[in-house]
Amino acid sequence: MSTRGELILKEHTTEEESSASELHSGRLSDFAYSSIKEQLTRGVYKPGHKLPIRSVAEMLKVGATPAREAINRLVFEGALVMVGPKTVIVPHLDLAALYEVTQMRLALEGLATEKGALRAANDVVDKLLALQEKITLSLDERRHSDALHDNKEFHFTIYRLCEMPRLLSTIEALWLRVGASFHDLYPEFAEAKYGVHNHLAAIEGLVDKDPSAVRAAMENDIRDGYRRLKKAAQERLKRQ
Predict the structure, then answer these.
(1) How far apart are CA 188 and CA 190, in angstroms?
(2) What is the torsional sign of CA 52, 55, 61, 64?
């Protein structure tokens, strides 16, 4: 009886109701995509982490269809990789991809930094100082995931100053590819405080209204990170 009732309801579903349902599903899919994307760029997941559709759906409180559509979209973009019929993982960047992404980051993030440096008002500097305090404390307490979360916000607080949305979206696409690999920075990067020194130099450049100094500090941050990530990738190759 209930099955027949369901069939009757389907038969009498109007075109408007069907369109509304598809629109709702599309919005949930976009929400799921944006959420997973943000987690990837902030380094929430390590390379090799599996993302089952059911787990993603439960985590984001959406249905299986929006979760599946979001995951498929990220697989298409190369941010996730299918290694089996139902198995999707966060990939490692190989040496060639790491080098290419790094070269693009240097050019684009350097450009965004320099273009926006003179727009940094006192409130921006205060925000950056507060973020850096949180990052430093997380590193001292070996809460590396928390440090990565705030590190992304530190960088993009500076990049958003350029007010160039297309440039920002391209930079975000690069972080989508490399975000998970940032876990390979630790513990060495935390112990040497490379990022801390570079971030403080960037803040100093903003205070001094020196775009070239800010750009140099952020580029140094990228280069220092690349050296550590490259070393981790080479060590992984030797173990294979």
Answers:
(1) 5
(2) positive
pLDDT, average across residues 61-90: 91
**Residue 65 in tokens:** 């269809």
Question: Could you give the CA distance from residue 98 to residue 100 in angstroms, rounded to a whole number?
Answer: 6
Q: List, in order, residues 6 or more apart from 214 with CB less than 8 Å away.
A: 113, 114, 117, 158, 202, 205, 206
Question: Which token pair is 169?
Answer: 């979206």
Q: Three-state SS string across 176-228, please?
A: HHHHHHHHHHCCHHHHHCHHHHHHHHHHHHHHCCCHHHHHHHHHHHHHHHHHH
Question: pLDDT digit string (tens) for 78-126?
Answer: 899 998 887 899 998 999 999 999 999 999 999 999 999 999 999 999 9
This prediction has a pTM of 0.83
DSSP 50: B
* Two structure tokens written together for 51: 């993302």
pLDDT at 86: 79
CB 93 within 8 A of CB 234: no
Angle between helices 64-76 and 53-60 (to 10 degrees): 110
